[in-house]
Amino acid sequence: MKGLVIKDLLSVRTALPLLGVMLCVPMLIAVIPAAVGAQTVSAGVLSVLYAVLAGMFCILNVVTSLSFASYDEQCGWDTFGAALPVSRAKVVLARYGAGALLLLGSLAVLLLVQFFCLIGAGQPMDGYIPAAIFIVCLTVEGVMHPILYRFGAQIGGYIFAGTAMLFGLGMTALGRYMGEMSEMSEEEIDALIEQALSGHYFAIAAVIGVTVSVVLYGLSMLLSIRIYQKKEF
Amino acid sequence: MANHNAIEIRNVSKHYEGFTLHIDTLDIPKGCIMGLVGSNGAGKSTMIKAILDLIPLNSGEIAIHGESHHNPTVREDIGVVFDELKFPQIFTAKDVRLVMKGAYKNWDDALFENYLTQFNLPVKKKIKDFSRGMKMKLSLAAALAHHPKLLILDEATSGIDPVVRDEILDIFLAFIQDEEHTILASSHIISDIEKAADYVTFINNGKIVFCEEKDALMEEYRLVKCGNEELGSVDKSKIVGIRTNTFGAELLMRTEDVPEGFVSAKAGIEDIMLMMIKNEGAGR
Q1: Which of A24, A112, A101, A16 is nearest to A63 (CA)?
Q2: Mutate which of B87, B99, B109, B149 to test chain A, going by most A C-beta atoms within 10 A?
C-alpha cells in the first residue's frame, strides 16, 4: 500500500511547486518589507490577500488530489495497480490516504505561512481559514472520489466542473437574495461577525464541520471500495 | 488442486457482449515457458486478465501455485509485463523503484540496479523520453526485481526491434533456468514463441484449440503441397487446414495422415495457427 501512496504523490509532484509559490506570495508581501525596514502592508489588506490565496490554494489542492485519477488513466496504471499484491480495498485506501496526506501537508505549510503573515503583520493567529480549507477540500474530495472511480477521470472532471459552476452561481444568487432581504446595516453585519468571532460559535462550527467532513470522507471511501471491487480492467 | 503446476484453470468462463472466453481445463507446469498465441480478439488478454483477477469470472476457478487467484498475496510471486509501461510519463526509473519497493515485500534494490545496468537504462531520465525498447526493459526489470516465480507477459515484445527482442528472450531463458520459475507469454510474434516456448497454447474465439508441447506439436503436423489433381485423391476428413492457390493447394495434415508419395514439409506454429483459423470447423 505504501508504494501506491508514493506513486500518487510522485505523480502530482509537478503541481506542488505551484502550490508552494502561491503560498509564498502573501508571506513575501508580509516579510520582505519588514526585513528591509520599509512600511509593512496593512494587516487588513494582508488578511484579505491571504484569504483569497487560501481559497485558490484550496481549489488547487482539490484539483491536484483529483488529478491522481487522471494520471492513472493516462498511463493505464489501474490495470497494473490491480495486478500488484495489494487488495482492491487497499488500493482505494491508498488513494484516500494520499489525498489526506497532501491536504494535511498543505495545511501545515498554510499554517506556517499564516503564522508569518498574520503574526508578522501584528494580527492574531486563528485557525478558521485552515479549518475551512480542510472541510471544503475533504468534502469535495469525498464527493468526487467515488464519482471518479465510477465514471473515470474525464466524465468525473466534467461533473466536478459543472457542480463547481452551479455551486458558485447558487452562492452568488443566495448572497444577492440575502442582501436584498436583509434590513441590517453594514455596521450591524460587521458587529455580528465580530461577535461570532469573539465567541465560540466559529470554533464550534469548525469542530462540527471538521468532524462531519472526516465522517463523510470515511463513508466515501467505503463507497469507493464497493465500486472499485466490482471494476473490470 | 495439486501444486506442481504454476497455474491451473478449471471451467472458467467470462461473458462479454459478442464474446465468451471459455476454458475447461488448462494446466501450466512449473519450470516452463508457455506461449499463448491467437489472433486479435481471440481471448489471450482476457485469459491473462482472468488469471491476474483483473476481471470477475462468470464461473470457474483459477489457482496460482496452488492458491486461489483471488488472494492478493499470490501476486507477490508474480511479475507482470503488459504491452505498455504503465507508470506516469514523468516518472524516472528511480521513481519506479520507490513505488515497487513499497508494493512488494521481496523487492530487491540491488537486483533492480543490476537490471538497470545490464539494460543500459538511465536512472534519472523521464520515462517519456525512453524508447519503446527501453520502456519494455524497465517493465521487465521492475517485474523481475522482486524475485517472482511466475512471469506473465501480455504482448510484451510487440513493437520492439529484433535485437532488443532477442535480448529479452535471453533474459527469459535465464529466468527459466530455475525449474521453479515459469513464464506465460502471449505474443503475436510467433517466431519469439517458436524460439523460446516449451509449450504452446492456441486460443481462438475464446476457446483453447490446443495446448501442447512445442516440439511435439511441430512433429505432429506437416504441410503438404499438392496440385489440383492430387488434391482430389486426398481424404478430406484428414485435412486439418487448407490454403488453395491457382496451381493447387497447401494442406495442413497430421504427420501420420500424410498420403504416401506426397511431398511434405515441417509446419511452423504460424502455419498451424493460420490454417486452423482459416479452416475453423474442420476440426483437428
Answers
A1: A16
A2: B99
Helix axes A201-229, A88-114, angle to 10 degrees: 150
At residue B276 the predicted structure's pLDDT band, cuts being 50, 70 and 90, is: confident
- The cell for B33 is 515457458
Q: Which residues of B touch A98 (CB under 8 A)?
A: none
**Would you call A2 and B103 a contact, using CB atoms and an 8 Å cutoff?**
yes
Q: What is the pLDDT of residues B140-198, one digit of tens each?
A: 999 999 999 999 999 888 778 888 888 888 888 889 988 889 999 998 888 888 888 99
E-only strand ranges, B45-172: 59-64, 67-68, 78-81, 150-154
Q: Which of A71, A80, A228, A229 to mutate to test the interface with B (most CBs of B within 10 A)?
A: A80
End-to-end alpha carbon distance in chain B: 29
Residue of B nearest to A6 (CA): B99
- The predicted model scores a pTM of 0.84
CA nearest to A78, candidates A221, A214, A231: A231
Q: Which of residues 168-207 of A touch B (CB under 8 A)?
A: none
From chain B, the residues in CB contact with A83 under 8 A are 52, 54, 75, 78, 80
Contact (CB, 8 A) for B213 and B199: yes
Chain pair A-B, CB pairs under 8 angstroms: 84
Distance of alpha carbon A207 from alpha carbon A198, whole angstroms: 16
B206 φ/ψ sector (left φ>0, alpha ψ -120 to 50, else beta): left
B196 to B138, B187, B192: CA distances (angstroms)? 21, 12, 6
- The pLDDT value given to residue B191: 85
- pLDDT tens-digit profile of A65-84? 778 888 898 899 999 999 99
Give ipTM to 2 decimals: 0.85
Cα–Cα distance, A79 to A88 (Å, whole number):
11
